[in-house]
Design brief:
By secondary structure, this protein is an alpha+beta fold. It has one domain. About 55% of the residues lie in helices and about 20% in strands. It has a 4-stranded antiparallel sheet. It starts with a helix and ends with a helix.
């Protein structure tokens, strides 16, 4: 079976709830891609905060574990019709978690590599990285973008 056929089979084997979350994340990633191209980051952060305050709480009866949501965001980013960035994925997961009442900290860091400035975004929950672990020690965090920081 070809690569896409195998991927489609894996997708079909996921429980309906996870397939729906995957679709939701794909839509979020597309929206975030457009927003990050057109709007200042402060507007996006403010909009995400308002969505968290007014959005539903997902499936409050039995919310998926944080690691499962992080995995779904990673999978959605990997198989998205657009090339996603670490910032898009971190924002999407942050929003999914906050809708379920789970606070996470968005970190954005920079490093100087081969004469160029590089940036990376990752998400921390309970003091450990849950999304975007790629070599974060090489990055100097600019500012922690916690839920409280975005509310100010």
């Amino acid at each position: 079976m070809n690569c896409w056929g195998e991927r489609l089979l894996k997708l079909c084997r996921l429980p309906m709830r996870e397939r729906w979350l995957l679709f939701e994340v794909w839509c979020m990633l597309l929206g975030l891609d457009l927003a990050l191209r057109c709007l200042p980051f402060t507007c996006i952060a403010s909009f995400c905060r308002r969505l968290r305050e007014t959005g539903d709480d997902g499936d409050a009866a039995s919310p998926p574990p944080v690691t499962q949501l992080a995995w779904l965001v990673t999978v959605a980013g990997r198989f998205s019709p657009i090339k996603t960035t670490c910032l898009q994925e971190a924002l999407a997961l942050s929003w999914l978690l906050s809708r379920r009442g789970i606070a996470a900290n968005l970190q954005i860091g920079v490093t100087h590599r081969h004469g160029d400035l590089a940036a990376h975004a990752w998400l921390e929950y309970n003091g450990r990285i849950i999304l975007g672990e790629a070599d974060v020690d090489a990055y100097v965090p600019l500012l922690p973008l916690s839920r409280e920081a975005v509310h100010q």
